[in-house]
Amino acid sequence: MKTIVSGIQPTGSLNIGTYLGSIKNFVKLQKIYSDYHFYLFIADLHALTTPMDAKKLRQKIKELAALYLACGLERENLSLFVQSELPAHSQMGYLLQCHAYMGELERMTQYKDKAQKQTDGIRSSLFTYPALMAADILLYDAEYVPVGDDQKQHLELTRTLAERINHRYGDVFKVPKPLIPKVASRIMSLTDPTKKMSKSDENVKSRINLLDDENIIRKRIKSAVTDSDQTVRYDREEKPGLSNLFDIRIAITDESVKEIEDAYEGKGYKEFKEDLGDIVVEELLPIQKRYRELIDSGELDKILDEGKKRAEQVANKKVEKLNRILGLGRKRK
Question: 60 partner at 20 to 30 Å CA-CA among 19, 44, 258, 318?
Fold first, then answer.
């Protein structure tokens, strides 16, 4: 069976940018690729590249798992699991480090950006985590990996490592291909539309979290940065803030740019933002309701246990195969 693989770090609160650019797209992909199996994991090992409070991390793992499911994922062709509960991820991550070059890791944009912001106390895991990310994908012979524009570089390294190992040792890994959504692949900050919406942004007004109260959602949209020209039209260069709000609306309603522009001919930003507030609230309220049902239920643990069991069987076989090829351990008949 062909597979699709994705994961999200349990750091901060899940925002609408991640939901529209990743999770909602993942739900759509389940319908489009109904004959594929989806491996979706909580990437808690990646969270350790920066200091994390243990109690907070465990809570975020649980919260993220519940939100994934609350967003409408189908269980029939899904394995949802916690990354650290499968030792195969760490094992394969190290094996791929042994085949990655320093120059390749040094060129990773996210590492360079974070290293510039944090000059002291940078953890070595921040430098090597692209190898672990590659392991997350290659363990499951992913046919496709849903990625945003800012993640393509990491997937290219994954492809490079897979091809390098296949060239040296034979057919070990499937070389994955990217799936980049046409809409909402990059939702921007509400306060600075030149930057991606981020859960780590110190300005809470820059984002809408999935569990935000209805009043907060409307206020964040109302205060979103736009421009002084009140003409409602899409223009990424001249109207980046308004165009970002267009992207949010299109990702939820599947309307075209022209349909929206026609609907607001002769109207201004006030009406547009009020309507967008209604649209976002209507989208998020059912997710919040389902989340509250799941978060402290035995159902959530059962789903995670089932996902772990299936993923573990596949991942362990891949690690054992590469171990044998590399000559690790004792020879077995």
Answer: 318
Question: In the prediction, which pLDDT does 124 show?
Answer: 87
Calpha distance 21→149 (Å, rounded): 10
- Asked about 199 being catalytic, the answer comes back as yes
Mark whether 267 is an active-site residue. no
Do residues 7 and 43 lie in contact, with contact meaning Cβ atoms separated by under 8 Å?
yes
Please pick, among 114, 174, 205, 219, the residue that the annotation labels catalytic: 114
| Residue 174 designated active-site | no
Report the percentage of the chain scoring pLDDT > 90.
Answer: 75
Nearest to 88 by CA among 333, 330, 309: 309
Among the listed residues 24, 60, 62, 196, the single catalytic one is 196
Domains of the chain: 3-180+298-326 (3.40.50.620), 204-292 (1.10.240.10)
Tell how far CA 113 is from the center of its chain. Answer: 19
pLDDT of 150? 66
Q: Which residue has the tokens 């991820």?
A: 89
Contacts of 30 (CB under 8 A, 6+ apart): 38, 73, 74, 77, 78
